[in-house]
Amino acid sequence: MAKEWQTFVRKFEDMKEGELELFIKDLTPGPRKYDTKHVWAKVARSKAALPDGETLWIRSESGTRGPEPFYISIIEVLPEWVEGRPWGNVFDAIERKRKKS
Hints:
This protein has 101 residues and is mainly beta.
C-alpha cells in the first residue's frame, strides 16, 4: 500500500518544489497513522516529475486541504525537533535553522 502524508504551510503558495525540510504526518491507515516525521525530502507537484513519490497533501494553518496533492520522496529522516521555544512557531524555527546553515 502506498503511503500518504500531509504537511502544513502558512499559505498554499508557500509550498515549493525541490529539496525541502518538512514536518510530515503519516495518513496511512493503521497503528502509525498521524505519526509525525521531520524529514529532508524531494517534493514535486506532479507524479510525472517524481514517479516513485508518495502522495503529500498540503494543509493551511487553519486545516484547509489543498485541491491537488504534491508528491514526496523522503531523502533523510531528521531529528524529531528543531531548536526553539515550545510555544514558538515551527515555521519560524525552521527558517532560523536554514539561515544558520
